[in-house]
Amino acid sequence: MTFPLGFFDVDCREVNEERNGFTIRPRAAPLAPRLERLYALARERSFPLVFCSCLGGRLLEEGDIPEVLYIPDKPERREWEQQISSHREFYLQKRRRGDPETNIALQAFDVLNTNANAARLFKLLDVEEWIVFGNGFNACVNSGARGLLKAGQRVCLLKDVTVMGAAKYGGTEESRLRVIDELESLDVRTTTFDPFMASLTP
């Protein structure tokens, strides 16, 4: 089955304290109304929603929430492939490599590079265009969009459904604009929330 759209949420959600659902990361809280509408749209239209969590937050553990298909990062783990058709939400495992500075230095945030099954998941889902949004724009969202391109996927970035990374890690307005220009030069389509939602209205 080919899907016209899929959503890739980079680091906006984390598992809640009870580990039975998800909450929005504090840094992404200003985006909450738009995020909730995107999540609702994915459910209503059965669009795939792929997501990962910030290494600074609570990471989902395998088996926590059965209705979300957990995609492990080890290449020898392929049993999840048989379960794709029965799920619409997919969680990409990330691993902390140490303190925040170490995670940045080792680019542990780059889930399409560190999770050996990520690119295969996106391929198997057979989505015509991935709608990308998220938290930590200059590093996490940027690497996610580039990883999708490298995996041969079409990408659309929702520019106003993003949160800049911390300034000490290069998250500035100047870097945001530079990254957008770079992504557009790589043929990433860019738009904003309201026109995107309007485009889906009959």
Automatic annotation (TrEMBL):
SUPFAM superfamilies linked: Isochorismatase-like hydrolases (SSF52499)
Designated name of the protein: Isochorismatase family protein
Superkingdom of the source species: Bacteria
InterPro entries per the UniProt record, alphabetical: Isochorismatase-like_sf
